[in-house]
Amino acid sequence: MRLLLVEDDRLLAEGLASQLEKAGFSVDITRTAKEAAILGEQEDYKAGVLDLGLPDGNGLDVLRKWRSSKAIFPVLILTARGDWQDKVNGLKAGADDYLAKPFQTEELIARLNAIMRRSEGRVHSSVKAGRFELDENRQCLKVDDGSEHSLTGTEFRLLRCLMGRPGHIFSKEQLMEQLYNLNESPNENIIEAYIRRLRKLVGPETIATRRGQGYLFNDAV
Ligand code: CA
Fold it and tell me: Can you give the pLDDT at residue 122?
């Protein structure tokens, strides 16, 4: 799941990014309002974390720009403690949730997962498809025979993407976008390697290849 983190405090941003990556996100960091506005409109993010006090502008203006374009991904704003007006203005501008600084990263991740669930119309913190269930909190795969497999960050992100829309064909390019941030540029062959590893867990027919098009999760197998 691609996530855009807009935060000008470098230490905070880097610390958060590494925690978020452990929780299954691939994170792009930007520290300016200008770049945030462009990235939010161009890239396919599943969620955004937006600091309001940015060196070249206000995060609320960024949010308004996103919302007036087609950027509809759920957004959590970071506000100063006690500043209720920022919270109200943020929600009015199209934010889905807010968190006052300082905060616990665990709470940020729980809130992000919650706003993503809501945007996908889910109630539970798991993704179910066919005989399989992906547990977001524990980053593991449960099978209906009772077995359970823990997943690496990349395996989780890839499976999360495929199981989120069973039957939908994802091109390698789309999968790469959800797996890696803008600074990483791995070879596309890496997708094939991960698909092979996942097929060992879910069975060869469950992740089908459509030649020349991409991969799909077959929940009828
Ligand atoms: Ca700031």
Answer: 84
Same domain, 159 and 202: yes
Q: Are residues 148 and 89 in the same domain?
A: no
Among candidate residues 102, 119, 136, the one where a domain is terminated: 119
Same-domain status, 50 and 97: yes
Q: 58 with 136, same domain?
A: no
Q: What is the pLDDT of residues 27-60, one digit of tens each?
A: 999 999 999 999 999 999 999 999 999 999 999 9
Q: Kindly give the distance from the C-alpha atom of residue 83 to the centroid of ligand 1, in angstroms, as a whole number.
A: 14
Tell me the CA–centroid distance for residue 161 and ligand 1, in Å.
Answer: 31
Query: Distance between CA 68 and CA 60 in Å, rounded?
Result: 12
- C-alpha 218/C-alpha 162 separation (Å) is 9
- Measured in Å, residue 114 CA sits from the centre of ligand 1 at 24
Strands 148-150, 57-58: pairing is: unpaired
d(CA 191, CA 51): 33
Task: Compute, in angstroms, the gap from residue 40 CA to the centroid of ligand 1.
Answer: 18
Kindly tell me if the per-residue pLDDT of 213 is higher than 80: yes
Q: Ligand 1: distance of its center to the CA of 53 in Å?
A: 4
**178 and 156 belong to one structural domain:** yes
Range of the domain at 186: 126-217
